[in-house]
Design a protein that fits this description.
The complex is a heterotrimer of chains A (202), B (380) and C (215). Chain A contains 3 helices and 9 strands; from the N terminus they run H-E-E-H-E-E-E-E-E-E-H-E. Chain A has 202 residues and is of the alpha/beta class. Chain A folds into 2 domains: 123 residues, Beta Polymerase, domain 2; 34 residues, no CATH class. Chain A has a 5-stranded mixed β-sheet with strand order 1-2-7-6-3. A two-stranded antiparallel ribbon of chain A has the order 4-5. A two-stranded parallel ribbon of chain A has the order 8-9. The radius of gyration of chain A is 23 Å and the shape is extended. The two termini of chain A are 45 Å apart. The model of chain A has no long low-confidence stretch (mean pLDDT 83). In chain B, the strands form 4 sheets. In chain B, strands 3-4-5 form a 3-stranded antiparallel β-sheet. Chain B has a 3-stranded antiparallel β-sheet with strand order 8-9-10. In chain B, strands 1-2 form a two-stranded antiparallel sheet. In chain B, helix 3 packs across helix 4 and helix 5 packs antiparallel against helix 6. Chain B is globular and about 70 Å long. Chain B contains 15 helices and 10 strands. Chain C has a domain of 120 residues: Alpha-Beta Plaits (2-Layer Sandwich). In chain C, 41% of the residues lie in helices and 13% in strands. Chain C is built from 7 helices and 8 strands; from the N terminus they run αβαββββαββαβααα. In chain C, strands 6-1-8 form a 3-stranded mixed β-sheet. A 3-stranded antiparallel β-sheet of chain C has the order 2-5-7. Chain C has a two-stranded antiparallel ribbon with strand order 3-4. In chain C, helix 5 crosses helix 6. The chains are: A alpha/beta (202), B alpha+beta (380), C alpha+beta (215). Chains in contact: A-B, B-C. Chains A and B meet through strand 3 and helix 3 of A and helix 1, helix 3, helix 8, strand 8 and strand 9 of B.
């Protein structure tokens, strides 16, 4: 049985794990590797379903990636009714165009690429997103489901600061114990004695 | 005590003194700056913790700060013994991301250099493994003698012996001349005799058999669940070779077997690499026979200032160590938004503790040797 | 029998040892520095700048476009553009680098600067005996140390140099032909304008329109 399309997978997962919310994220590139965004609460149950389902047997977790999406600002032009003073002193109500900026909160993301060694198909791409980049950066760990995620989740914790609940041994892996910052984040500032890297925009 | 998961008898330490030894990072047998914190009961290992990060250069952030072209020389330095296959993994991911096609002759040349890389990697690895076992450098020097010939071929093709920087998205940097291909054919004609000699050196050696058979057993189910790939996985009996599964490049035009092991011990992993060396030579003969004429690069591809459409792609190849994958997220600009390497050496190390607990400390070294790690890839 | 495997191995070792006296393939040591390995044509180590002719300042091919500086992955090239210009090999006025530094301790010999240079100005050298006892200044190569003549390039990379020289000769000829054609066209135009002025009265044309026609 071949791997179903992302929409079919979404339907079957939502049927198999009650309460799970799955969103299909389209991929703009020619690789057409679309992904499924899961909610943190049911992620572990969905993962077990994917691994144990007879038709899919996604028993191999190949890659766990951390991604940093910083806070952005969106600006939109809004028509607002305002009291405008004319030159001769009279006030009148007019419609004025204003640029309103809203802050869109950023988040940290964990992306899982799953394959099947038994059925030799894949990849199925899962995404888990945190609520923000500051206080609540907890995500469920999928290491109890796939042991291959163990070192990679530790790396996502080390370099991004995502805390995986349920991980058997969550501590820094590449940086030394006692290192404070999260080096792969977009706003990481290297220590003052390092040569600054100048980003060249192309 | 019988361990259910590992399915073998595991030594249970009695009441006694646990000695903690830090093997590394300055150690001749840890294949780089790698440390193992080992807790010993006498000579038996009770607990083992791998510690690495001594060679961490934040390669992923460097690649995110530069353009897509600038990352290619940095990929040479990941698994520094196999720079050609590292290049291929990255350009494959970029080609998937941007939808770039590769000319025929370039695909054949990619297979030729990748298989030469695989041959010299396996030869060197067996040499290092046997040296760790005490064979004081003789097999290693024989392997390096042949490896030098392959590196000389790489130098006359790409300009450098190890940091080749040869592949580009959409093909290769330069074409190979007819003289170069004839030299490769001559070398591939002489190599089977070398593999016979190399194998005869230590294949039936009683000391080798006694030390490696039954040591460091990795059961099949645990190997799959831990994400182990490459010869280490196939030694445990799982038939998963990305060249056969993903059909990347033109590998489905060639006939080659995928050797499988039975027990998943150190001896099986050593034999995997020997048998893969022979399969590699068969692949090389076929590729050298069938290679067509033609261009090796599509001139319309923008190397400088490539701006793929926003999206993401995961491209993976069967490198000599395992599954080497590159995950790229593009936001439409000339720099990758997220660049991630899937390092097979690091993920194969996950299971090191389980394999070593209960063994003698001397065997820890050969188990690590059979995992085949290169610290440039583990730490990036 | 016990020990058979060990004896098989020793047979192989003996074959290699005694074979090294008879077969060249088995004796692979190069007695450096008395013997040196001959490097293949494509071999590369660190970059250098090319100049045509005898004068490194006047014949320097580099026009300080700074593309190599931008594309260099470890950013080891530092260029400062000059304020004045000098003619290049086709006669066009180009700027030149007032400062061209390569930090060889940072350079990773990837040769991307060579690939992207549109003016054939920077190429890879093969010299590897570059040790110095000055860790900082000794490994920062300035324009003076980097500039080498085209004859040197032809000696170390004959095939590449033949291709580059052939292409530059063709470009120079094309540029000369184009310049000659442009000059001939301008002369013809001036001659026809002069002959038209010499013949009969002209319709009245305002000064502005006449000026426009001339330019």
């Amino acid at each position: 049985m071949a791997l179903p399309s992302p929409e079919d997978l979404k339907a079957q997962i939502e049927a198999g794990v009650p309460g799970a919310s799955v969103t299909v994220i389209q991929n703009g590139s020619p690789s057409a590797q679309h992904s499924l965004l899961l909610d943190a609460e049911h992620a572990r149950a969905v993962a077990e379903l994917l691994r144990d389902h007879d038709g899919w047997r996604l028993d191999y977790c190949s890659l766990v990636t951390g991604v940093d999406w910083p806070d952005t600002e969106t600006s939109e032009k809004v028509k607002v009714k305002k009291m405008v003073k004319a030159a001769d002193g009279t006030e009148s109500e007019e419609e004025v165009e204003e640029v309103r900026k809203t802050k869109v909160a950023g988040y940290l993301e964990a992306v899982y690429h799953l394959f099947s060694m038994e059925k030799k198909h894949g990849p199925v791409v899962l995404r888990l997103r945190t609520a923000d980049r500051g206080a609540s950066v907890h995500l469920p760990s999928l290491t109890p489901v796939w042991r291959g995620a163990e070192f990679q989740e530790r790396e996502a914790f080390d370099l991004y600061g995502i805390i995986f609940d349920g991980h058997p041994d969550l501590r820094r892996i590449l940086m030394w114990e006692g290192f404070k910052d999260y080096p792969m984040r977009k706003d990481y500032v290297p220590p003052a004695d390092e040569i600054p890297v100048v980003e060249v925009h192309r | 005590m019988r361990d259910a998961l590992l399915d073998r008898d595991v030594y249970e330490p009695e009441e006694g003194e646990i000695m903690e030894v830090s093997m590394g990072p300055h150690h001749p047998s840890t294949h780089g700056v790698f440390r193992m914190d080992v807790k010993l009961e006498g000579e038996r290992v009770v607990k083992l913790k791998p510690v690495f990060g001594y060679l961490h250069r934040n390669h992923e952030k460097i690649a995110e700060h530069g353009a897509y072209l600038s990352a290619i020389p940095y990929t040479d330095r990941l698994d520094y013994l196999c720079s050609m296959t590292n290049n291929w993994g990255y350009v494959l991911a970029v080609e998937k991301l941007a939808g770039i096609a590769v000319p025929e002759r370039a695909e054949y040349l990619r297979v030729i250099v990748a298989e030469l890389t695989r041959f010299q990697n396996h030869a060197g690895l067996i040499g290092f493994l046997l040296q760790d076992m005490g064979a004081s450098g003789t097999p290693l020097m024989y392997a390096f003698r042949e490896r030098e010939k392959i590196l000389d071929l790489f130098e006359s093709l790409s300009g450098a012996r190890m940091m080749c920087n040869y592949m580009r998205f959409g093909g290769l940097r330069v074409d190979a001349t007819k003289e170069w291909l004839d030299e490769v054919r001559a070398l591939v004609g002489r190599l089977p005799q070398f593999v016979d000699e190399y194998e005869a050196l230590l294949r039936a050696n009683e000391i080798l058999l006694a030390r490696t058979q039954g040591t460091g057993v990795l059961p099949r189910e645990l190997a799959i669940n831990t994400g182990v790939t490459g010869p280490m996985l196939r030694a445990s009996g799982v038939n998963y070779d990305i060249r056969k599964v993903d059909h990347y490049g033109i590998y489905d035009r060639f006939t080659f077997k995928v050797p499988l092991g039975e027990h998943g011990d150190v001896y099986d992993r050593y034999m995997m690499r020997l048998l893969e060396m022979r399969e590699t030579l068969k692949l090389l003969e076929q590729a050298l026979h069938d290679i067509p004429e033609g261009p090796v690069m599509d001139p319309k591809v923008r190397l400088r200032g490539l701006r793929p459409k926003a999206g993401e792609a995961y491209g993976r190849i069967e490198s000599p160590k395992g599954e080497l994958g590159f995950f790229l997220i593009s936001d439409g600009s000339g720099n990758p938004y997220r660049y991630r390497v899937r390092p097979p050496s690091m993920i194969n190390l996950t299971i090191l503790e389980d394999m070593c607990v209960g063994e003698n400390i001397a065997d820890t070294v050969i188990i690590l040797g059979s995992v085949d790690i290169v610290l440039g890839e583990v730490d990036r | 029998m016990l020990g058979e495997g060990i004896i098989q191995g020793l047979v192989e070792t003996a074959r290699n040892f005694f074979g090294s006296y008879t077969e060249k393939n088995r004796l692979v040591t190069v007695q450096y520095p008395e013997e040196r390995h001959e490097l293949p044509e494509a071999s590369r180590n660190f970059p250098f700048l090319l100049y045509d002719g005898k004068d490194p300042e006047a014949g320097l091919r580099c026009v300080a476009c700074q593309i190599c500086e931008k594309e260099c992955p470890p950013r080891c090239i530092h260029i400062e553009k000059s304020k004045d210009k000098k003619p290049d090999f086709v006669g066009k006025q180009q700027a030149y680098p007032a400062v061209f530094d390569i930090d060889v301790s940072v350079c990773m010999s990837c040769q991307i600067c060579v690939e992207v240079c549109p003016f054939d100005a920077i190429r890879m050298d093969k010299v590897y005996e570059l040790s110095t006892d000055d860790r900082f200044g000794g490994l920062l190569y300035t324009k003076k140390e980097l500039a080498k003549p085209n004859e040197y390039y032809q000696k170390i990379h004959p095939v590449e140099a033949a291709e580059t020289d052939g292409r530059r000769v063709k470009e120079a000829e094309e540029a000369k032909a184009k310049a000659a054609a442009a000059e001939a066209a301008a002369k013809a135009k001036a001659a026809s304008a002069a002959s038209a002025a010499a013949s009969g009265p002209q319709p009245v044309v305002s000064d502005a329109i006449a000026k426009e026609k001339q330019s």
